[in-house]
Write a structure and sequence with these properties.
about 525 residues; Rossmann fold; 3 domains; eleven-stranded mixed beta sheet; two-stranded antiparallel sheet; about 15% strand
């Protein structure tokens, strides 16, 4: 307050006017002074930071910003910090880190709320957060290739904020989430343990931010789809939380269709169409197949489920002439030589495929995204020494996530943000001597909640969760006709993180908007 303001205030307080007039005058003058001071030092919208104390005393940083989507400005508030998990006795057992984006204005009871997470297990939510869903995204080239460091992020005109508020969750031991001092981290590292802690987070978050009345969604990627499917049943059965929709982004529901083991030939058949897709992209197929990707994949799928699956089922009963015929056909659909396929006993494991497809070119292809290639120390190894598609995104996403937290969300921590946390060994005791299959949990949830809708997204060049294994899993849920119509499938000409590919990101946004409209029309 300047000297003139102080003198004027002194005169008003001590002037010989009646008491009521003095109070009114004082209020008017105080308001005038406050407005003048605010005009002198305005706060930029992106840096209006406050702290919100949690019940456990941990601060949540609050910032306000805006993003343009489809030519329209969306103002939003971001809450960044921790939610403390407690056991049944009220003892704190973990701090779970989250970022919550809420569109300003409107009725939150009508506004969808989407809880999002990635997979691993052991991954933070960085990929969905900075890749396609949040209000900022990593700046990549149109095909998803990263430029050299230092890396930048930009406003994300394809953010989901147009349709839904968003909560990005880092499971315990990932991101900034940690067990409480003295607590054993193993109590969070397993399928059931993870479902329990994530379910508790969802329940507590809905109460803390008064969102019980909102339409509710889950969005998971990779193992995050395993988590989402498991949560769909757990939230209903244990917390009576019924969902409107689930987004399965690069899905794995049944590990029996995805994991290679001697004696488990099912994944070998289901991977064949992905081999075809990768070979098509790298122009290693015959001209008849190179002409049309979707036509080539349809033929490959028929071969995989038909002649090839039968040959695998026969095992030692397969005659030499049958083996020769299958190897020749398999060569046609994979771009590998017939001799190599025969040497592999008709069973070419994915790790070998990454190296073999472009061995003559001195290149290996990516696991997360087969479009990417890399060079190893030599060209004779059985498998590649690193995944070039992961190396492409590792640095950019790590750097920009940390930069974004500090500069725009005003959240600073001395401990590191774990892009990948140490959560191994991951406990699968609930499925000893069998494969984890959460497709049944999802089917159960859909049976009990007929309004539940499911988005399933597939990247053709994804080897982490191959598209045909995910299709197989959905078709083997044996959904009733009225349930099956609630599942919608979407395909993209990219890999595991298909949103890093600009054309796929554009299509992804359109598909997501469509799905939100579809799932809200009950």
């Amino acid at each position: 307050m300047n000297t003139q303001h102080a003198f004027n205030l002194f005169l008003y307080i001590h002037s010989p006017i009646n008491e009521n007039m003095r109070k009114i005058s004082l209020l008017i003058l105080s308001a005038t002074i406050l407005m003048q001071l605010q005009a002198q030092k305005p706060l930029p919208a992106a840096t209006m930071n406050t702290t919100e104390p949690t019940p456990a005393g941990v601060a949540v940083t609050t910032t306000r910003n805006s993003v343009m989507v489809g030519g329209k400005k969306i103002d939003y508030t971001a809450y960044t910090g921790y939610l403390t998990l407690q056991n049944d006795t009220g003892k704190s057992i973990a701090k779970m880190f989250f970022t919550y984006y809420k569109k300003d204005g409107g009725d939150v009871a009508k506004r969808p709320l989407t809880f999002t997470f990635n997979g691993g297990p052991g991954s933070s939510s960085v990929w969905l957060h900075m890749g396609g869903l949040g209000p900022k995204r990593v700046l990549l080239k149109e095909d998803g290739t990263a430029s050299g460091p230092p890396y930048r992020y930009v406003n994300n005109e394809y953010t989901w904020l147009e349709k839904s508020d968003l909560v990005f969750i880092d499971p315990v031991s990932t991101g900034y989430s940690r067990p409480a001092p003295g607590e054993n981290p193993k109590q969070f590292h397993g399928y059931q343990e993870d479902i329990s802690s994530m379910g508790a987070f969802v329940r507590d978050f809905l109460s803390r931010y008064e969102r019980w009345g909102s339409p509710k969604y889950l969005a998971g990627e990779s193992y995050g789809t395993t988590r989402a499917a498991g949560l769909s049943k757990y939230l209903q059965d244990y917390h009576r939380i019924y969902l409107n929709g689930i987004f399965l982004i690069s899905s794995v529901l049944n590990f029996g269709t995805n994991d290679y083991y001697v004696g488990n030939d099912l994944p070998r058949a289901l991977y064949i169409p992905s081999y075809t897709a990768a070979a098509w992209y790298h122009k290693k197929l015959a001209p008849a197949l190179q002409a049309d990707l979707k036509k080539a994949l349809k033929e490959s799928e028929e071969f995989a489920l038909g002649a090839y699956a039968t040959a695998l089922l026969k095992g030692g009963w397969l005659s030499e002439s049958e083996k020769e015929a299958i190897a020749e056909k398999m060569s046609y659909y994979t771009g590998l030589s017939k001799e190599y396929i025969l040497q592999s006993n008709l069973r070419v494991e994915e790790n070998r495929f990454y190296k073999e497809l472009r061995r003559k070119d001195g290149l290996s292809i990516g696991r997360l995204d087969a479009r990417f290639t890399g060079r190893d120390i030599d060209d004779v190894a059985e498998s590649n020494s690193f995944d070039p598609s992961f190396a492409n995104i590792d640095g950019p996403f790590t750097a920009t996530m940390n930069d974004y937290f500090q500069k725009e969300l005003n959240f600073k921590e001395e401990k590191p943000y774990n892009i990948f946390g140490n959560v191994y060994p991951w406990n699968y005791n609930n499925v000893q001597n069998k494969f984890l299959n959460v497709a049944e949990s999802l089917r159960d949830a859909m049976s009990k909640n007929p309004a539940l809708k499911v988005y399933v997204g597939f990247g053709y060049y994804d080897f982490a969760t191959p598209y045909f294994t995910a299709k197989y899993d959905i078709e083997h849920m044996f959904l009733r006709p009225e349930q099956r119509k609630n599942v919608r499938s979407y395909f993209y000409e990219a890999g595991h993180m298909y949103y890093i590919h600009q054309p796929s990101l554009v299509q992804f946004k359109k598909d997501v908007d469509e799905f939100f409209d579809f799932s809200s029309a009950n």
